[in-house]
Task: inverse folding
């Protein structure tokens, strides 16, 4: 039986509810929500109504939506999204207070809210949960074209009617509702050409692209039927020059100092050594096609039926060319090491007979095909004047097919020899320069462009296919009350089923550390290769050969290019029917493939408040949400081929049979109660204070709920006899629980009377119970009780005597119990100088500043090196401002976004957690309304070509140095 007791937050909210029950009736403010104009008193005391358009109108609408919202929130409107240089919703959202973005390939993708990363953010579209192409919880907002979204809100304090899941906050995206459109028919076309100024430095990189969108909204049959259709296309080049430092996962005593103790536990006298580094040109093309459709029917005033659909397909084809330096520092001969913070940041590394120190000429071709679908049917019915019922059916799916294809080449002594030999004379000299490019000297540099020396040595392809989908049904009721305290009561229920699957496969041929005699290297001919020289700040690095992947593969595999498969590999334990295709053990392709299931049932009750306390009007809500979660994952449990434990013959895609594993499903369930309260105190007509308190939760990333557990049983001999001990391990687990936090918000909001604008100051505090997932060893783990298969008895294979079975250690993913606080302040100011003379009446600005701190520190395990890091996504200071001026159809504005240093992941050979340096992004736009229908626009994204820079704990240990170039847009807009 589930048992719980009220926590301090629940008691505080209960006390607040009791206090409110003694208060009196207050005024209504709903009629004020439609303010979108300014009024000026003329000399004759007549009111002149001035319609506000463009960016000013969007600001005023956003201010009013925030002003009359019943939670702490930030708002964006359609005009705002359509007018600024936003390639996607990720860019648009970063202009809101307390919100920042992590750039991938120069584009904002994942957002952070109040210092917390995307995994702590819940995202909905038209009120419906959205799954992600990332294989995690965090939605990739670059999948959502800003042209197709009519409104966006970020809820920093929740209410119980919102879907649970956001410790950091909830992002709500909305598409158009045609029956609410002011015009009977509206038609818009937007076309812009695009140019990237870095692409010219990268051979074969495209430099030009385009954006195009068209939308229509119409009302028919006496405004009872509404139709909205939209299409948005983005074709953009991607261009990057980058240096990437690799993780410090090796260790060796290189300074020979006695009693040195800064190294890992098993070698305290050792210094940490990086795996190496990469120098690369990256280029490619990204194509995104987005569609939105809405059909709305309102036959009577009290009934509305709406179907809406959203579809986005984002295809990326990218090449990465250059070279990767692999130091293999624990075995290489090292001289003249330069050490800082007990890490080697420079020196001379020479290959030995025991090491694999080398330089790989890298030619990767990566493709990523992502697809997002969202469908919904909503019926809204005012059953009586007081009772409303809303029924919503929804489906959301995301598919990602990422293929990492690589062709690597090594330097030979003589590529034309009958049996070419790898050139073992490898000497690497380098010195990192922190957040600047390093000094590099490579003794094989002259051979990198020599067809008589370079040979293709390895081909590999590694597909990752993620599929994620959720189906849900939701039922909500709202009953209007005649009560001095509560204006209405809301109750509702939601049931959802989510299924996530991950499929891995592989094909590998050759070797990246030398030449494989059984899979020999390939001679490179002139038609396969192009010499590439570095430009700009990178121009001092050695040139290299860029390879044509198709030409190489057709020459290497004349009978057809092999395709990746899901296979055990012939040397995997349990394979019983001989060698199949390929060599080695690739059983990870099956072990890391699988499914996760998540069934959620939630109910809530919420009272909407409309009363007075001490003469002050008070509005808001109070309630509780109950969430029942059941989660499970498929598992291949290693039972050692024991048929009695359920071992089965499992055949892979090439016919290899493995009899070692039991396919099964491991399950877990839990119930949560989430009390929440929002109170808005109206001090004057233009001043108000908000108070909010809530218990919130975020579930672990969906891929972390997968099960890859293995269980072993071994005989243990002690002085008191022998027994059989069960032990095991798992990197992920369906037994992981959500992250919980109690959070509190207090804000003051002032809305200006004589002009358009507002001032908002807020403080927030989050008491987080758990902020991460760690690997933890649990002694005497209850294997059977947690769904793992354990035999009833174990027979000693030597004596044949049955042994007692005892539970031993289990190393598994576990919720970190070291939580802590996140606290901060936010200040936002918007001012439109409409009171100035006509020329300057269109001048204005909006700015925000947030300061966030946390006591939470985590340990980033980068191979041998453990580094303390802050909470991923947390920048102590985040600033954004937009300055604009409008006059007689001309509009210009500059947007600046700054964020302090933060922690996130960089992608090298594998994802690595690093510290990112602070960055400031500047965008510019100018537009002119030629006539009533036509407008022209010019914009520049990333005006200063701001790079991304990262490091491993200390700036001396360089992570990434990435330069993306500037994007220029020029286009026309037609509106009817």
Result:
């Amino acid at each position: 039986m589930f048992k719980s007791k009220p926590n301090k937050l629940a008691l505080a909210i209960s006390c607040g509810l009791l206090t409110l029950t003694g208060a009196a009736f207050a005024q209504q403010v709903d009629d004020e929500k439609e303010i979108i104009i300014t009024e000026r008193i003329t000399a004759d005391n007549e009111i002149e109504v001035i319609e506000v358009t463009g960016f000013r109108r969007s600001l005023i609408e956003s201010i009013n939506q925030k002003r009359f919202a019943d939670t702490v929130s930030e708002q964006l409107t359609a005009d705002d999204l359509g007018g600024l240089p936003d390639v996607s919703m990720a860019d648009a959202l970063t202009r809101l207070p307390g919100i920042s973005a992590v750039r991938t390939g120069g584009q904002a993708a994942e957002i952070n809210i109040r210092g917390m990363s995307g995994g702590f953010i819940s995202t909905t579209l038209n009120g419906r949960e959205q799954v992600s192409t990332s294989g995690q919880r965090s939605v990739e907002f670059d999948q959502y074209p800003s042209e197709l979204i009519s409104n966006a809100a970020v809820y920093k304090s929740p209410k119980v009617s919102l879907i649970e899941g956001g410790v950091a906050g909830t992002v709500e995206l909305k598409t158009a509702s045609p029956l609410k459109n002011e015009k009977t028919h509206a038609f818009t076309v937007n076309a812009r050409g695009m140019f990237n100024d870095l692409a010219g430095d990268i051979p074969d990189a495209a430099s030009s692209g385009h954006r195009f969108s068209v939308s229509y909204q119409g009302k028919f049959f006496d405004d009872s039927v509404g139709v909205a259709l939209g299409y948005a296309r983005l074709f953009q080049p991607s261009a990057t020059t980058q240096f990437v430092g690799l993780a410090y996962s090796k260790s060796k005593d290189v300074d020979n100092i006695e009693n040195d103790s800064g190294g890992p536990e098993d070698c305290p006298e050792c210094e940490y050594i990086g795996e190496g580094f990469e120098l690369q040109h990256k280029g490619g093309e990204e194509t995104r096609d987005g569609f939105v459709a809405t059909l709305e029917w309102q036959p009577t005033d009290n009934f509305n039926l709406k179907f809406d659909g959203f579809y986005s397909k984002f295809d990326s084809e990218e090449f990465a060319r250059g070279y990767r330096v692999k130091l293999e520092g624990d075995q290489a001969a090292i001289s003249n090491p330069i050490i800082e913070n007990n890490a080697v940041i420079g020196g001379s590394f020479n290959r030995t007979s025991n090491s694999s120190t080398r330089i790989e000429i890298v030619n990767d071709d990566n493709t990523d095909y992502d697809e997002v679908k969202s469908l919904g049917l909503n019926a809204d019915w005012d059953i009586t004047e007081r009772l409303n019922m809303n029924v919503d059916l929804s489906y959301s799916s995301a598919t990602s097919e990422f293929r990492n294809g690589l062709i690597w080449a090594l330097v030979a002594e003589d590529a034309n020899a009958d049996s070419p030999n790898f050139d073992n004379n490898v000497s690497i000299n380098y010195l990192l320069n922190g957040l600047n490019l390093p000094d590099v000297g490579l003794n094989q540099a002259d051979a990198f462009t020599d067809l008589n020396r370079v040979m293709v040595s390895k081909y590999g392809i590694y597909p990752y296919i993620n599929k994620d989908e959720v189906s849900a049904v939701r039922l909500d009721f709202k009953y209007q009350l005649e009560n001095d305290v509560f204006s209405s009561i809301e109750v509702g229920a939601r049931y959802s089923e989510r299924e996530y699957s991950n499929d891995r496969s592989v094909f590998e041929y050759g070797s990246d550390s030398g030449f494989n005699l059984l899979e020999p290297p390939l001679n490179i001919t002139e038609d396969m290769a192009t010499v590439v020289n570095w430009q700009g700040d990178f121009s001092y690095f050695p040139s290299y050969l860029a390879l044509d992947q198709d030409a190489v593969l057709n020459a290497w595999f004349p009978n057809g290019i092999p395709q990746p498969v899901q296979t055990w590999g012939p040397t995997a334990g349990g394979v019983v029917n001989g060698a199949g295709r390929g060599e080695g053990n690739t059983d990870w392709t099956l072990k890391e493939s699988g499914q996760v299931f998540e069934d959620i049932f939630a109910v809530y009750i919420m009272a909407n408040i409309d009363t007075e306390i001490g003469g002050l009007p008070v509005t808001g809500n109070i309630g509780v949400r109950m969430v029942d979660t059941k989660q499970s994952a498929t598992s291949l449990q290693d039972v050692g081929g024991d048929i009695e434990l359920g071992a089965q013959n499992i055949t892979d895609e090439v016919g290899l049979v493995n009899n070692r594993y039991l396919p099964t499903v491991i399950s877990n369930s839990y119930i949560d109660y989430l009390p929440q309260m929002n109170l808005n105190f109206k001090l004057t007509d233009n001043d108000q204070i908000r108070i909010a308190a809530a218990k919130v939760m975020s579930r672990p990333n969906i891929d972390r709920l997968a099960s890859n557990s293995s269980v072993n049983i071994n005989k243990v001999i002690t002085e008191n006899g022998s027994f059989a001990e069960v032990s095991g391990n798992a990197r992920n687990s369906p037994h992981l629980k959500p992250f919980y936090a109690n959070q509190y918000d207090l804000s003051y909001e002032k809305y200006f009377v004589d002009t358009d604008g507002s001032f908002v100051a807020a403080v927030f505090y989050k008491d987080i119970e758990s902020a991460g997932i760690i690997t933890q060893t649990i002694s005497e783990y209850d294997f059977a009780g947690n769904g793992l298969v354990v035999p009833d008895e174990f027979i000693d294979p030597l004596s044949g005597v049955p042994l007692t079975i005892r539970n031993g250690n289990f190393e598994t993913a576990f919720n970190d119990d070291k939580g802590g606080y996140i606290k901060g302040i936010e200040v936002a100011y918007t001012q439109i100088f409409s009171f100035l003379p006509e020329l300057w009446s269109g001048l204005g600005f909006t700015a925000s500043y947030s300061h966030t701190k946390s006591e939470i520190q985590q340990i980033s395990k980068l191979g041998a090196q453990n580094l303390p890091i802050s909470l991923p996504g947390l920048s102590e200071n985040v600033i954004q401002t937009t300055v604009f001026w409008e006059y007689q159809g001309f509009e210009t504005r500059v947007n600046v976004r700054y964020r302090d240093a933060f922690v996130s992941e960089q992608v090298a050979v594998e994802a690595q957690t690093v510290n990112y340096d602070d960055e400031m992004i500047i965008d510019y736009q100018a537009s002119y309304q030629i006539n009533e229908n036509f407008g022209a626009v010019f914009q520049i994204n990333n005006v200063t070509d701001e790079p991304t820079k990262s490091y491993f704990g200390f700036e001396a240990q360089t992570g990434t140095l990435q330069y993306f170039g500037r994007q220029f847009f020029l286009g026309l807009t037609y509106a009817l």
